[in-house]
Hints:
- This protein is α/β, with parallel strands linked by helices and about 550 residues long.
- The protein is built from 20 helices and 15 strands.
Amino acid sequence: MRFTPLVGSIVLTVLCLSYAYWEPWLLLPALLFGWLGGVGVYDMLQSRHSILRNYPILGHMRFIFEGIRPEIRQYLIESDQDEEPFSRDKRSLIYQRAKGVEDKRPFGTRQRVYDSGYEWITHSVVPKHLEDHDFRIQIGGPDCKVPYDASIYNISAMSFGALSANAILALNKGAAKGGFAHDTGEGGISRYHREGGGDLIYEVGSGYFGCRTPEGRFDVEKFAEQAANPQVKMIELKLSQGAKPGHGGVLPASKISHEIAEARHIPMGQDCVSPASHPEFSTPIEMMQFIQKMRDNASGKPVGFKLCVGHRREFMCIVKAMLETDIVPDFIVVDGKEGGTGAAPLEFANHMGMPLVEGLTFVHNTLRGAGIRDRLKIGASGKLVSAFDIAKALALGADWANSARGFMFSVGCIQAQACHTNHCPVGVATQDPIRQRALNVTDKSERVYRFHKNTMKALAEMTGAAGLDHPGDFRPYHLLMREKDHEMATGEEVYPYLPEGFLLRGEDRGFGYLMRWVRADASTFTRLDLPDDSTAIPIA
Length: 540
């Protein structure tokens, strides 16, 4: 059906020319259909626009509508109040920065500045000009022998299999050119990750893809081999992801290609199961021991874990296990429930897991309360696509930010929401070889590089405008928000940094921290039995 307009134009051209000898007026439609056929052939041969390669002739309708969008924008805003703002302004911002075109807009802000929930960064009357926008942090605690100087903005976890080969290759080549990292996702390290040559964060999920035994358990020798790869800069143990925390997954045998089987170290012809929980540990202390096992075989590279915060007490159990075993990971990535996936049940995507702001604040303050915040770094992910998004995450306690959506858009994603159908119109989220050939790796990798570069430039400008020298200097008091009409609050009031060591000292600073800390146990994730006391409140 995608090629019907092209085939139809060619057939109609031939028919008109065939009968033009008897009916000369048919030369006019022959010229029209011939012109359309020529446009379609050119669309299939050009490499700049993925959608035109997959939808010759028909794909031009999208660009026509895109061209008149400014004139109908106000109508869209007024008629579709529930439409997520990301689908309009932020997506446009990503495309502009990825393409290297002007991203400035006339007539002021497009945000509803009088609405409750509006947020802004305070600026200084003595701003600074920052020449260097290659902002970096060193990840690796006292026990790390090969720390990684990471960019503060990297590609978040997206597996090969979920994304096409060309999409993975374009992302990784862009990361290599820009000097930032590419998280592999739990699908393992594919040949396309290696071909790109960019820095990798090797994510190890509950399926242990790339480092598993035939029975699906952790294979330490295979893990050590993967970790020794010079491209691998960090190892990330995935506990859960924002879009479907606490949910496993099954990749049907029919969808497993030879390349996917090669990357994941799984057999062909069998369903591939990702359990909801890790089979290698079941208690907080066992989890810390498993992280130490990974660290001992990671060639000295940073080892950490990723989670979407669920039961807050369970995270405190993990922190208590860190204190009891003195095994502290090099980093923690907090994934907000805003994260997206093509395989999440609707209820999980909408109502399971903690949003990034709340999860990040909780993790940051719990580590401060336990006195170990300075021993590890925190990454944040969850729709962080603009300089303001990154600045806000850093202000609330993160050391760096990850983005999946922003970089997906930079390689051509148009949010068609067909990821789960294998019919992605631009070749990003599909294993169809015909569809994915539309994604030109050379062109899209350049867009990945430019998106990162231009976003970092914008962040440098915001940082300088606030009178700061580095984005890591943002604090909650730099963030203001309107709570309701005529009332505003600072980030320091809403998301304060709680004192170092307050949990160890038994201080109650509100927000339910101390109650949960008392009930947390390093030896089990199970909630302790509460005393027979009418005042006792179960705390999750």
